[in-house]
Batch of 3 targets.
Target 1
Amino acid sequence: MSVTYLIEFDVKPAERERFLQLLGGVLDAMRHEAMFVDAALHADPANDNRFLLHETWKSHEDVLTVQLARPYREAWHAALPDLLAGERKISMWQKLRDDQQVASA
C-alpha cells in the first residue's frame, strides 16, 4: 500500500536558495525511481521560508531501506542542519480517496 509523507521545513532565511537548489536536485532524481508515485512542494504564502513537501511512494519499507540511502540524497541530508531553523516535522498518511477535476464535455 502506498504511503504519503508530509514534511514541514522552516528554513533559515539566508539558506532559502541553497535549500531550494539541494531539494530540487533530490526531487529531480526521485521522479525516476520505480517506487516513486508523486511529490509536490508547497510554499507558505505568509512565510517565504516555510515549506511543505507532499511525497508519495509505493512502499514505506522501500523508502526506509532503499530510498533514504540513495547517493543523490547525501548532500541534502548533510546540509539539513545548516539549512533549517528547527527540526523537520514529518508525518505519514495513507490515501483513502483521490479526487481529480473532471473535464467538461
Target 2
Amino acid sequence: MNGRLLAIARKAKSHAPMEEIPTADISIEFGIAGDFRGSSKRRQITVLAIEDWRAAVESIGCSGLPWTTRRANLLVENMALPRRIGARFSIGDVVLEVTEETEPCARMEKARAGLRAALTPEWRGGVCCRVITGGQIAPGAEVKSA
C-alpha cells in the first residue's frame, strides 16, 4: 500500500511560525516556494510521517500537539519514510532524495518537555531531503518509494 500526503507547511524565515498551505510548488532551485530553507541543498524539504509523530507525542502524554510543532514541511501517512541517505521517494510527480535524518533540536524541548528525546529514536523526527524533480503537490497526493 502506498502512502499519501496529509498536509503542507512552510516558514518564511528562521524561527517564524509555520504556515499550513493548501498546495505547494516544488522546484529544484527553491524547494517549497516561499519556504526559507528552499535554497539549501541539504535541507530543502523536511518530511514527517504521522505515525512517527503520534508515537512520539503519545510517549510523552501529549497526543493533541499539532504536527507543525515539529516544524516539518510535509506530513505523510501510511509510508515508512526511508531511513537511508540517498534513498528516493515520490509525492505525486515530485521526487525527493533523503540527505539526512531530521535531528530534533532544542526548539522541540521548548515546545514540550520530553519531545526532543521522544523524536530521537529510529528517525522519528523525519527526514531532510533535496528536490530531484519538481512539480506541484497537494494533500491527497500519493507517496511511494521511487
Target 3
Amino acid sequence: MKKLLFFFTTVIALSANAQQPKDTSAPYLRNQNIPPIKIITAINGTDTTWFTNDNLPKDKTIAIIYFSPECSHCQYEAKELVKAKEQIQNLFFVWVAYHPVADNIAFAEKYQLNQLPNTVIGRDPKYFIPAFFRVEFTPFMAIYKKGKFVKEFREGAKVEELVEVAK
C-alpha cells in the first residue's frame, strides 16, 4: 500500500511540474535592467582594464553593440556612427566582441571609433553578452535608457533610428 501511495504521489508531483510552462524568452526580455557588463578594454592601446556598469554614464542612453571585427555589416555600422558623431552625442556606445583585445583595438583604430569620446570597445571573455541577448547576427544592438531596456536592433540600426530612440 505504501508503494502504491508513493507511486501516485510521485506521478501527481511530476504532472504538476510538467504542466508549468517554462519561460524560454531571452534573459534581456525577462529582466529589463541593463545587464551586468564586464568587458576587458585597453587604455592607450596597451594596458588592459575592466569596464563594468559602474563605468557607464548615468546621463546618456546606452547602446550595447555586439560585433565581430571581421563582419562587413559591423564595419559599415562603425563608419556610419563615426560620420554621425555630432548626431549621436547623447548615446554612449559599448562595443563588445569575443575576439582578442588586440583585434578590437585594431577595429576601433581602423574605423576611428577610438576617436569618439562616448564609446568603449572591449572583449567579453565569458561570452555573457551574446548569451544574454541571444545574438544571431552582428551587429546586434540593445538600447537602454535610465538603466531600462528600450529597444533592440537585431541586425544593426540606422543613425536616424538611434537618434530617435535616444530622444
